[in-house]
Amino acid sequence: MKETFFASSDSEEDEIEIKALPIDLIWRKRVIRSKIVRENWMIDNGLENVMEIIKRKKWEKLFRRRELMHIDAVKEFYAKLTMSHNRKKDVAGSKVRGIEIEFDHQKLASILDIPGNNGICEYIKEVWEESKYTKPLEITRRFANDETIMEARRVKSVETKPFQRFNHFLVMKNVVPRFGKRDTTSYMDLIYMDHLIARRLVNLPRVMMRHMSYVISVKDHELSYGDWMTMIFEEFGVPLVDKKCEEPKKYDFFEEIFLTMCKLTRKNEVWWIGSGENRRRDNELEAPAEEVHEEEEGQNNFDWEAAIDEPAVQGESGS
Hints:
It contains 13 helices and 9 strands. By secondary structure, the protein is of the alpha+beta class. It starts with 15 loop residues before the first strand and ends in a 12-residue tail after the last helix.
């Protein structure tokens, strides 16, 4: 498998076929759900700017959903999953409990009720490439908050500010979900964190489908989006009457694990980062004043060159 799993340079003509693991290995994998956002908690804890990012992306309804997670159905979906990708389109096919399932990224966007026409959808594994908006050294300096850094590298969570850290948490729990490596960012994390904070377009349905391909291709990765899969199953009429399903638990909500996992505490409206000798005070929760590039309603054609350069939604001012 390539280190650069899916890049913006993939041509429209070249179909990328995914070589999945044996079915028995996929079936043994753990199913994980996305984290649920409660807007009141976000606002009460001074994270209005993070909530604003979620709303501008039009992801808030999806992130608030509390779906049952049907473990065996999710495993069957992934075990039988076939995927193909090119520059313009991603297509998934599977069969669950006798029901054929097939969708492209635009159909997935419709099912999840989120935008899916334009936006970055690169899925890059540890290849530090420079593009129009992603300059490795600049991104490293920005998120490590250190202009003296001379080489692009992973960024430790303790180096980030609260606003940046929350966006890392959002990326690794809802955009490209996985366990582990909570204390450092991957390059792909930094790319999506940068796009979220700068309010540039992110094509979540395409990112999800490329992430699905990745998780069935490697041994050490969980089966993601377990709860959102319920919406796909319902769309295609998959029978979901079974005992092995899970309701959201306490730790499936952002507020229950965010502060602990991100080593953040808040007292008297002041954020404290880290612990022990690394503990420092930082109340800087404002998003950077950068150009806003958001997705227009009614766009139907994916255009890579325009995808990350769209004007703000009419009637909204940039920040």
